[in-house]
Amino acid sequence: LARKSTINDVEHFSMFLDCNDDSVYDHWRVDHTTTIALVNRVKPESTKSTTFSNCFEKGSESWGRKECMLFSDIENIAEGFIQDDKVVLKARISVEAVDGMKKIVPYDFSQVHDSDSVTLRIGGENVYVSKGYLATHSPYFDALFFKDFKENSQFQIELKDVSAQEFIEFLHIVYPSNKPITVDSYKYILALADRFQVQMHCIKSFASPEAVKTIESTHEFKKFSDALKIALFKRVLALIKG
């Protein structure tokens, strides 16, 4: 992060590094050494850099230098740091130790894993899932697999009007893969969570109220059911309360 800081009525150019600042977990740490450089576009040998080593952890997710250089020096074109109203920053980060970070555990839905598996046929592809696991989290799949539906005696069930790849990404959220919802995936994952009735389970992946508020401003939000909107609202309240 680069920003302007005022210290004793003097404006300085400041550079900071943030790490895992939206984590909902309390016990984690990252030891690192970082060099951040403000590149001189005219005289590379005059590039300004700062190096720091420290430990990021919950409550100390940001660290850097407030007084890297005078902001007036950057604004002075003759100094060579600014061109076309732009500056160039380079960062070299060396991570020395990591503790308490959850790792993404990939789950292969193209393989049969146990006797409880059932084949979901989606767009010509086979997706293998555990009937019991999905039924535990989803009333939709509980009814599909175990209630009075003809599908409950079938070993292969077709799901229509869904992309196989998007459904697999959705499964990574339902299963304990620790795979986060991203800006690229949240629209279809929430739509699938709504369709298959796993709203509360999926929205636990949102780690800040801001992430939920971003969704509320989208066109897709209007299409969500009342149940999903209520679940999102409850998630915001839980995050605010901490």
From TrEMBL:
PROSITE patterns: BTB (PS50097), MATH (PS50144)
Pfam family of the protein (one): MATH_2
InterPro entries: BTB/POZ_dom, MATH/TRAF_dom, SKP1/BTB/POZ_sf, TRAF-like
Top-level division of the source organism's lineage: Eukaryota
Domain spans labelled BTB: 116-183
Domain spans labelled MATH: 1-93
PANTHER family registered for this protein in UniProt: BTB AND MATH DOMAIN-CONTAINING PROTEIN 36-RELATED
Protein name per Swiss-Prot or TrEMBL: BTB domain-containing protein
Organism: Pristionchus entomophagus
